[in-house]
Amino acid sequence: MFSRNDFSVWSVLKNSIGKELSKIAMPVVFNEPLSFLQRMVEYMEYAHLLQEASSKSDPVERLQYVCAFAVSALASNWDRLGKPFNPLLGETYELERQGYRVICEQVSHHPPISAFHADSEDFIFHGSIHPKLKFWGKSVEIQPKGTVTVEFPKWGEAYTWTNVNCCVHNIIVGKLWIEQYGTMEIVNHVTGLRAVLNFKPAGWFSKDLHRVEGFIMDKNKKKLNFLYGKWTDFIRVTDYPSYEIYYKENAHKFRSANDSKGPPSNSESPSQTPKKVLAKLNSFKVGPFKSQASISEPDDTGPVEPSGSDIPKCDSTYSIDIPNSLTLWEATPRPANAADYYQFTLFAMSLNEMEPGMEKKLCPTDCRLRPDIKKLENGDLDGAAAEKNRLEEQQRDARKARKGKKSMSDWKPRWFCHGTNPHTGHEDWLYTGGYWDRNFGPDPQIF
Ligand code: CLR
Fold first, then answer.
1. Residues lining ligand 1, CB < 6 A?
2. Which atom, in ligand 1's list, is nearest to the CA of 43?
3. Is 46 exposed, middle or buried (0-12, 13-18, 19+ CB in 10 A)?
4. Which of 52, 81, 209, 366 has the lowest tally of Cβ within 10 angstroms?
5. What is the C-alpha R_g of the chain?
6. Where do the domains of the chain lie?
7. Highest mean pLDDT: which range of 150-154, 393-397, 402-406, 438-442
């Protein structure tokens, strides 16, 4: 990758305050050589956890592994600060791996919506993501709207959840860093078992950096299990009685760890008070944006800014290891050269691979065939920028042409249709089948 030291995100974004981030033209140097469709497929890195889940005859154990999967799916986001390429309308991506295969399609351009469908002998995993990006000045907040669903045909079960929000900090000064926070509720629609997982904001003293905690409950909300860990690292589970005993003996640890809403009343104030933050923004002359900046100040739900513009460090002295715990998942360490390769995991590094014979059987809309991504991967920054422009213009022209023809004015995705998720009743995009028959033909030509 190219060093981004000479480029400032702020210098690009300051002219785009209030704009939807998907509409801002970002220089290619801020991109990573993957399409968002591939980034979505990174949810699959620990797909073996779904196989594990399906192999358990106890529904509580199944839910534990579904939880581990849901958290593990977010692990690759740690330290990944490049912007994936916006998929073109109709762009696809396929991946066949041991035990499963997955197909993705960009089903809408404005707003950007990406749909995926993975199947295997043991599970089906599908969903659609509509990332909403809000630029708050100091940070960019990302809401991955859309439901994801896991089905175990063997058990006649379906689980759904929505991914938590994500925040990229230090847009103005300091080093960028990523935080994921909020509540994830994983529901088994057949048994009524559910898990409520709390992705904690780093908090004033960064004690809770990347921490995840929550309970598995039966349909009467009785707590059965306690899950804890970090989305960057591991997830463990213990039974509720063991948690209670541990909690009583270590109440002080929990109290401070759970207190992410502000500092204890008798302690010194955090290094960045809202006033100071505003003063800093003012000194950058952001003008009309001031009032919005104040909205993003700490409240009950959003992340609180840890001290200054540094990346907060996790307080390792606060590490809970509760007796009778079972480790459900542990993250694979990044390859040693990850820093030279966009902080990719080994799994991400493999996603552009053209395996022998693939050229012939790949769908012509597959993003492995996108010339701009290819050029960035090969280190040709100017070439990548030129191709990216060309593709975006071509897409705009195609859109205009469709609008001209009244009869066929709307674009119809090829592999997914707009519908209702039968388990949640919410809007979703459902796979219509047929991709793996591989009767593609030469069209559409989107690259
Ligand atoms: C986070 C996990 C969600 C799905 C999702 C949607 C959008 C992604 C986001 C994830 C991770 C961060 C992301 C974002 C789009 C742009 C943003 C890649 C995968 C990057 C870091 C923004 C870079 C631009 C800055 C330099 C301003 O389930």
1. 9, 30, 39, 74, 77, 81, 83-84, 129, 131, 140, 142, 144, 163, 166, 168
2. 28
3. buried
4. 81
5. 23
6. 9-435
7. 150-154
Averaged pLDDT for residues 32-39: 98
pLDDT at 318 over 90: no
CATH class, domain 9-435, is mainly beta
Task: Identify whether the C-beta of residue 33 lies closer than 8 Å to the C-beta of residue 378.
Answer: no
What pLDDT does 216 receive?
98
Cα–Cα–Cα angle for 54, 123, 80, rounded to 5 degrees: 100
Residue range 113-168, pLDDT digits in tens: 999 999 999 999 999 999 998 888 889 999 999 999 999 999 999 999 999 999 99
Residue nearest to atom 24 of ligand 1 (CA): 83
| ipTM, 2 dp | 0.97
Q: CA 267, CA 101: separation in Å to the nearest integer?
A: 53
Q: What is the pLDDT of residue 326?
A: 97
Q: What span, in angstroms and rounded, lies between the C-alpha atoms of 126 and 358?
A: 24
The alpha carbon of 58 and the centre of ligand 1 are apart by a number of angstroms equal to 35
Cα-based distances in Å from 87 to 40, 114, 143, 311, 429 = 11, 8, 18, 30, 16
Strand partners, 115: 105, 128
| Nearest atom (ligand 1) to Cα of 39 | 19
Mutate to test the pocket of ligand 1, among 129, 142, 164, 184 (most ligand atoms within 8 A of CB): 142
Taking the C-alpha atoms of residue 429 and residue 420, their distance in angstroms, rounded to an integer, is 8
3-state secondary structure at position 256: helix
Structure letter (DSSP) for residue 21:
G
Q: What mean pLDDT is predicted for residues 165-188? A: 94
Check pLDDT > 80 for residue 214: yes
Eight-class DSSP state of 388: H
